[in-house]
Amino acid sequence: MTDFLPDNFRALIRISLGLQPHFDHLLTEGEWRALYEEAQRQSLLGVLFEGVRTEMAWQRLEDDLPGVIYDWMAEMLYLEQQNGLADAAVAKVYARLRAEGFRACILKGQGVARYYPEPARRQCGDIDVWVDAPPRRVLAFVRRFVPRPHPVYHNVACPMPEFEEIELHFRPSWLYNPLRNRRLQRWFDACRAEQFAREQPFGGGAACFPTLRFDRVYILLHIYRHVFAEGIGLRQLLDYYYILRQGCSEAEREEALSVFRRLGLLPFVAALMFIMQDLFGLEERFLLLPPDAERGAFLLAEVAQAGNFGLYDKRIDRAARGSAAAFFRHLRRNLAFFSQYPSEVFWTPWWKIWHLFWRKAHGHWLV
């Protein structure tokens, strides 16, 4: 049923994950170029290079490589270098926050990469840090680097000398539905102490990362959040694949499902399980729920259309962000999800209006 991604690209994913030995035919230069562009679009160049190497060995390609393979090699080496720099930056940012008296925990990004067999090949991005402090105290710290910070409900950008792309989180995430969001924030509070007590060596220094129990819920929620905000790509779905591959006991599985049930996320979980099994070949023993093929196909179509963070989704007008026109375009886009996730779509405009006033109260009017 996965007809939304090119056949060769789907095969490359399976080869990279060790589910398929090689392609069923010799690829042309043009087919290699198409694979490279789709891997770039989904931010999977580094991860899928394992499949490229496997295919090169099977075809006995040595000196007569397609030109795009050299581009791919260069991207992979650059990515490994960038991941080394990002790891060091995480350690420096963490040390700065600890020196200021903050307890901190690294979310997503370099933390999720720990679950990969080759962490340095996961495409890195900004640094997200959950800071255990009230928003006002965090904003007072941020103003030392940004005179007029622009906080949103869950975080604020804070470029530091150690690294430019940093977001400090007051809350790891949120939901538009106010009742479910209240339940979510209570769950975060219940998990809080454990997440800030796991400091370990990292990047030439130290850092604190979430527990697998926390990531089993949080990373799925992050994927769900991006479906409604910007769009989601296969990189984030592969993150969750590797989290599930860590395994869990029946009690841990039931604990995660209990949280998802209270948050109204079980239909989304079932949709994601379809992609985990159908595209990534995840074994049934690792699934949280039986897959929902219909919902999963709908979600995969969104992933294929949007690309990483929705950067290729023509329905999103990024130039108009912050304007009334962008507000209504966003609502119109999300109406496509109403049949799948009615509560979240229904509460979207009300939450956004409330959020305008929240931002004003925190010193920033949406412009």
Largest sheet: 4 strands, mixed
- Counted beta strands: 6
CATH architecture of the largest domain: 2-Layer Sandwich
Calculate the mean pLDDT score and round it.
Answer: 87
* Rg (C-alpha, Å): 21 Å
Poorly predicted runs of 5 or more residues: none
Top keywords for this entry?
single chain, about 375 residues, alpha+beta, Beta Polymerase, domain 2, 4 domains, four-stranded mixed sheet, two-stranded antiparallel ribbon, 14 helices, globular
Q: Can you characterise this structure?
A:
The structure is a single chain. This protein has a four-stranded mixed beta sheet with strand order 1-2-4-3. Strands 5-6 form a two-stranded antiparallel sheet. Helices cover 54% and strands 7% of the residues. The model has no long low-confidence stretch (mean pLDDT 87). Helix 1 crosses helix 3 (49-59), helix 8 (212-229) packs antiparallel against helix 9 and helix 11 (266-278) packs across helix 12 (293-306). The chain has helices at 7-16, 29-41, 49-59, 67-99, 109-112, 135-142, 178-195, 212-229, 234-244, 250-262, 266-278, 293-306, 324-334, 342-361, and strands at residues 104-107, 127-131, 155-157, 166-169, 199-202, 205-208. The chain has four domains: 1-65, no CATH class; 93-210, 2-Layer Sandwich (Beta Polymerase, domain 2); 211-313, no CATH class; 316-367, no CATH class. It is α+β, with helices and mostly antiparallel strands.
